[in-house]
Design brief:
Shape: globular
Strand content: under 5%
Largest sheet: none
Number of strands: 0
Number of helices: 15
Distance between the termini: 30 Å
């Protein structure tokens, strides 16, 4: 076991510092978005078997356990730095894990396609969060893009029926997904405050650990009052995939790509999430693309294009 750790740790450290060529960066970012889309389909596929709070909590706990051997020494060496920024780290943990939990809960009530298409609005919600947190001015074109993207979300949430929105007769799951991307927007807008000397591996571990602790009471409540997580072969595979491949590995791919091409160019690749998500949901779950998906998705893509092309540089999204 110790030998395996000594082999894996240098690999993770190299990945943190690795700056790929632009061509390789585009591939890594594309792979990351594919893994995120697959995670949405996975969550939807097991939602009848695994309760949402338990699934979310266990995936992050697994990520914490996986990273602990690699950062154990760093936690002691950087304890003063961690103590100085502990409040901010706790907030980032709550935003990361809390937003993920919102998505998991949402996918229990809405389709994987809906969740994937709404998820594509993250660049627009991030721009709003940056404006709120950093008071970064929003250009006219960027503002039009944000509004266009939000209209696209409303089209999907309301199933292209304005009367549905007026009656608030919408799918609860869609609203949870919207809350999730808002939370991730604020998470991304605050990434610039991370001390460089902390290191991404240590930062990821601390956010996962603090977020997992914050989610623990909700997991316990669900286990006692609703349903416990059944430890079947399918549930274990789903938790391992979400806990290690998505919560740890895909974030490294995303960060490596961003180091090469920048956050603005990388953000446009989030448009691939609904594309991959729709294909995977149709193939594995038998879901269908409806007209409001195309209308809302087109508006979201137009909004994202305006935000990225006409907006200013924003903090990197990790």
């Amino acid at each position: 076991m110790k030998k395996e750790i000594y082999l894996i740790k240098p690999l993770l450290n190299k990945l943190e510092k690795f700056q790929p060529t632009p061509t390789l960066a585009y591939f890594l970012i594309t792979l990351a978005t594919f893994l995120w889309a697959l995670s949405i389909v996975t969550i939807r596929g097991v939602h009848e078997e695994i309760p949402p709070l338990g699934l979310s909590s266990l995936r992050w706990f697994l990520g914490v356990i996986f990273l602990l051997p690699f950062v154990w020494g760093e936690l002691f060496r950087k304890h003063r730095l961690i103590k100085r920024h502990f409040g901010w780290l706790c907030l980032m943990g709550v935003l990361q894990v809390g937003s993920s939990t919102m998505l998991v809960v949402g996918v229990n009530f809405t389709t994987a396609i809906n969740a994937a298409v709404i998820n594509a609005a993250q660049p627009a919600t991030t721009a709003i969060a940056v404006w709120i947190v950093m008071r970064d001015k929003i250009t006219l074109g960027q503002g039009i893009g944000i509004i266009t993207g939000l209209i696209g979300i409303m089209v999907i949430v309301g199933r292209a029926d304005f009367a549905t929105l007026l009656r608030f007769d919408v799918n609860t799951g869609d609203w949870f997904v919207v809350l999730a991307i808002i939370g991730w927007g604020f998470y991304a807008s605050m990434m610039h405050r991370m001390p460089r000397e902390l290191g991404m591996t240590t930062f990821l571990f601390l956010t996962l650990a603090t977020g997992s602790l914050a989610s623990l009471p909700f997991y316990i409540w669900e286990s006692l009052n609703v349903k416990t997580v059944p430890f079947t072969f399918e549930s274990v595979i789903a938790i391992i995939y979400l806990g290690i491949i998505v919560s740890v590995f895909s974030i490294y791919l995303w960060n490596a790509g961003i180091r090469s091409i920048g956050a603005n160019k990388a953000s446009i690749f989030l448009n691939l999430i609904p594309v991959f998500g729709a294909m995977l949901a149709i193939f594995f779950l038998g879901e269908y693309l409806l007209s409001f998906h195309f209308i809302g998705g087109a508006l979201i893509c137009l909004g994202i294009t305006l935000v990225i092309k006409l907006g200013r540089n924003s903090p990197e999204i990790h």
